[in-house]
Design a protein that fits this description.
The chain is an alpha/beta fold. The protein has 10 helices and 12 strands. Strand 11 and strand 12 form a beta hairpin. The longest helix has 18 residues. The protein starts with a strand and ends in a 20-residue tail after the last strand.
């Protein structure tokens, strides 16, 4: 397995609950895995764990293995080499990753590319006239072009694992589609795995092979993208789909009631119970644990029966 996160729990000083709680997640070679959920659900922290970039003072248990090596045990030069060659992050804001006074070519050579390779990388990610762009500075390029530059930088060392954290959410739809297509092409060419973080569940369902849904630092559902979109199981997944606008037939957008929990909130049972229209009294004391589904996925919901082929054993009322 390329990325194997096993029972990862991360606690921050002063927080009432873990920022990540018993997270399990895998990415195989050549696979695109989606990670979705509201802001504060733990998506970015999960991705950063694969780079050993957890916050200072964080207490961790569990393991984060990349190609069999536990990243949480790496230090010094070994950790720097892992970040430089084995895994690479593509952030939402490309300007934050680029030095405004350095040329684009400098950014790529600092990541291990030669001058000729820098030009070829820019051509690979779809930038026209790459010979000219390597001599330019960030302020001379548009946001979409800069995102391509950042992707080229991530690919410079031919990493085995790509981590894309909302890498296309700030782009227009056309540019987003072009970059997603380019990411898939380059991933296939290099045989890398991709962890794709997004707020857009519809995009994840269309783009990814499998999708993990996170809430309050826990994975509450993980399925194939097709199963998640056509027969979601957890009430939170239903809620995310219900409040996501779609093209085509007009469908009422229904926000999830309440607010996402903060790190000061604690739970005696299911963390989603206070926002769930189908919660029962027992949900407030039920200790979350994955319930395995017939299709190989899982969901953390008391109302799901083990081996269920689809959503709930009785109809959902409010999501």
């Amino acid at each position: 397995m390329l990325l194997d996160i096993e029972d990862l729990t991360v606690r921050l000083p002063g927080a009432a609950r873990p920022v990540l709680d018993s997270v399990r997640l895998t990415v195989a070679e050549g696979e695109v895995v989606g990670l979705v959920g509201e802001s504060g659900s733990g998506k970015s922290t999960t991705a950063k764990a694969a780079l050993g970039l957890l916050p200072t003072g964080a207490e961790t248990t569990g393991a984060v293995r990349v190609e069999g090596q536990d990243v949480l045990t790496l230090t010094g030069e070994t950790l720097r080499r892992h970040r430089a060659t084995t895994a690479a992050m593509i952030h939402q804001d490309p300007r934050a990753a680029l030095n405004p006074v350095r040329r684009i070519g400098d950014f790529l050579t600092e990541r291990g590319a030669t001058k000729d390779q820098s030009v070829e990388l820019l051509r690979t990610v779809g930038l026209p006239a790459p010979e000219r762009h390597v001599r330019q500075r960030p302020h001379e390029l548009s946001g979409g072009m800069l995102q391509r530059v950042v992707i080229a930088g991530a690919l410079a060392a031919r990493p085995r694992l790509l981590l894309a954290d909302e890498a296309t959410s700030a782009l227009d739809v056309t540019t987003q589609a072009e970059i997603l297509a380019q990411l898939r092409t380059t991933r296939e060419q290099q045989g890398a795995g991709l962890l794709f973080i997004t707020h857009d569940l519809h995009l994840a369902a269309a783009y990814c092979d499998r999708v993990y849904v996170m809430y309050a630092g826990r994975v509450v559902e993980q399925r194939t993208a097709k199963a998640l979109f056509t027969a979601p199981t957890h009430p939170y997944t239903h809620g995310l789909l219900a409040c996501s606008p779609t093209l085509g037939e007009a469908v009422e957008v229904r926000p999830i009631p309440g607010r996402p929990p903060s790190l000061s909130d604690t739970f005696t049972g299911c963390p989603f119970a206070t926002r769930c229209a189908d919660a029962e009294d027992a949900c407030t004391t039920w200790q979350p644990e994955p319930v395995h589904l017939a299709d190989g996925g899982s969901a953390e919901c008391r109302r799901v029966e083990p081996g269920a082929a689809r959503s709930h054993p009785k109809e959902l009322s409010g999501q």
